[in-house]
Amino acid sequence: MVQFMKYFLRLQNHFYEHNPSSNSSCPSTPLKWCINDYDGYKFCIQNPTLLPLSILALLIGLFCSKRISKLSGKFPSRWFYYLAFFLYGIMMTSAGILHCFIGDLPKNKISLKFIQLFVTIIDCSLTTSIAVTFLFCGLSDIQFLNPQSIFTHCLLFSSYFILFLLWTLAIIHEWNTIIYALYVGVISICCFVYLITQLSIKSNRRALPILIVGGIYASIGLIAESFGAEHICTSEGPFWSQYFGPEFIWCLFANISMAFIFIYVIRTNIEKQVIIKKYPIDMEKNPEKF
Which residue ranges run through the membrane (predicted)? Predict the structure, then answer.
């Protein structure tokens, strides 16, 4: 279990660690910044470059969800978008706790290992739950689902529960194929379907370039964390990959992607203001000019 927890903290090891003939260029142990006080207590932060990105993600999630909740005008899928951004902030917070504080706990502290396992499951299930939420956003935007329906809400929360259950079983039993399918497969499919739904809405097409840019950033980050991890570590070298490796790129590009998606949502749903133009010509004296 301990070995698998370390394995999951860097998902791309799925392609290398079970192959004896392959040596990964990515650091096997996380970078640590430690502070020692006078009492001998040692406080360490692992992967320190991920901490500010996690804090930024939390701020993005809270700010964007609050702003979306206050959008004026008709916006049926408002609650789903609000939930997606709010969950993003929570997910990245749990990821920051996992990667920076409890990613490498002492082996003899079983209770702390349970906390590590629990946070890992929460982090992973939230990641795929956010993708599923965007899927519901898109299906609600094209009126395939009724966002006000109790059935739709129950279906969404049932999906969350199923994902949580699958992640729990997959991590405990080390089902690598299921983990890969949940992480890469579910996210890719849900985001692709969401993009298709937005392409089908004619009124949103003027803002589509913003969404496409956000999707490109998300795709690059996902590829960097999975397929391209080894190439990135090799290119950066052992020193820089400790600071700006695949996990850093994934977190950074995820924040950028969510920012672009937020701008897209605002642009497509903000209430249009009616501009009244004042004419200097008197309509009663010169009606022929109107």
Answer: 80-102, 114-138, 150-172, 178-196, 208-227, 247-266
Gyration radius (Cα) of the chain, Å: 23
Whether residue 127 contacts residue 183, with contact meaning beta carbons closer than 8 Å, is answered with: yes
Rounded to whole angstroms, how far apart are CA atoms 220 and 228? Answer: 9
Residue 237, domain CATH: 1.20.1070
Number of domains in the chain: 1
CB atoms within 10 A of CB 180: 15
Domain encompassing residue 205: 2-9+50-270
pLDDT in tens, 81-131: 999 999 999 999 988 888 888 765 554 455 567 788 888 889 889 999 999
pLDDT digits (tens, 9 = 90+) for 125-182: 999 999 999 999 999 989 899 988 999 999 999 999 999 999 999 988 888 888 888 8
Instruction: Give the integer Cα–Cα distance in Å for 53 and 151.
Output: 36
* More confident: 135 or 39: 135
Count of CB atoms situated within 10 Å of the CB of 7: 17
d(CA 105, CA 115) in angstroms, rounded, equals 10
Residue 284 lies in a domain: no
In a domain, 28, yes or no: no
Interatomic CA distance for residues 28 and 12, integer angstroms: 12
